Amino acid sequence: MNKRYFIGLMSGTSMDGVDAVLVDFSQEHPTLIERHSQDIPKHTLNGLQRLCLPGSDEITRLGQLDRSVGQLFASAVNALLEKANVNKDDVIAIGSHGQTVRHMPNLDMGFTLQIGDPNTIAVETGINVIADFRRKDIALGGQGAPLVPAFHQQMFSKPGTNRIILNIGGIANLTYLPGDEQPVLGFDTGPGNTLIDAWIQQVKSEHYDKDGTWAASGVTDEKLLTQLLSHSYFSMAFPKSTGRELFNQAWLEQQTAAFGHLSEADIQSTLLDVTCHSIVKEVLTLSGDGELFVCGGGAFNIEMMSRLKALLPSYQLSSTATLGMNPQWVEGIAFAWLAMRHHEGLSGNLPAVTGASREAVLGSLFPAI
């Protein structure tokens, strides 16, 4: 059978690197052929983090970073193909999510902005690129996020069983796959790794809390936890989506200012519980029991997984590896899938998830020629 290769590129709100995957869609279920992770260079990362906050001369910085991130993504693709020993001519298209620098769908004129110039990616790889997946959904009145539930539905739904796919990246989002004829639902629950990463970076200059060890050494402060969970986002009805615009370093510093008596580890434990409790609240709203499968970086955080299991005793909880898909690569595969859907003229959004007025083909094509 002829191979049908697509590449997926993903860099999430945690900005912990670019994930590139080569996927074969020639059969009913996609096959992951090769994967590659590429670190974001320090100067590019610093620029992205500054761009995520209001500042001066943003348009010039935005334009330059757009090209820089495009070059980074192209480099990841070329390294991926070299590892896989696959020729660029064998790849139908690249699906590039880009790097989100603003996601504000709830303004009077809502918008979302991802950078990583797809023209640059197309030129430097010699492969057609499909990108800008979110803005069509926003033009149709939707949130533009999350987009992965349509992929989750096709890959992971099981008749007769309520399943939740929980992606814990910088922001946590879930997909509810009911076992009956109810519609699939999906939305951002709130912070995933973004707050615990921000705190350990500030205090210890480490990128992340490996296995959740530091959080496990602390004791959650109930007063701070209650204050953090009082954020209005947690009581919003879905469809809803969020990002660094709400949950960021500045907000964290403001919220913890009156808690200087707490140890740094206690604050880390409390921030981890913000993630866990906000997830659990939404999970139990959807269904009292079922199966829950975790993907994204959070799936590798032992303490986070332990706390989720303790808070959800009526759920069978494991990672998507149980379903045959490595939790690190699920989102990358999803954007390869969205590129395939665009190539075939098929819709990529679920209006019940995003709030869009209709289904639509997502993304725009940037030819390599």
From TrEMBL:
It comes from the Bacteria. One of its GO terms (molecular function) is kinase activity. Pfam families: AnmK. Its EC number is 2.7.1.170. It catalyses: 1,6-anhydro-N-acetyl-beta-muramate + ATP + H2O = N-acetyl-D-muramate 6-phosphate + ADP + H(+). ATP binds at residues 12-19. Keywords: ATP-binding, Carbohydrate metabolism, Kinase, Nucleotide-binding, Transferase. Pathway: Amino-sugar metabolism; 1,6-anhydro-N-acetylmuramate degradation; Cell wall biogenesis; peptidoglycan recycling. One of its GO terms (biological process) is amino sugar metabolic process. Belongs to the anhydro-N-acetylmuramic acid kinase family. PANTHER family: ANHYDRO-N-ACETYLMURAMIC ACID KINASE. Catalyzes the specific phosphorylation of 1,6-anhydro-N-acetylmuramic acid (anhMurNAc) with the simultaneous cleavage of the 1,6-anhydro ring, generating MurNAc-6-P. Is required for the utilization of anhMurNAc either imported from the medium or derived from its own cell wall murein, and thus plays a role in cell wall recycling. This is Anhydro-N-acetylmuramic acid kinase. It comes from Shewanella hanedai.
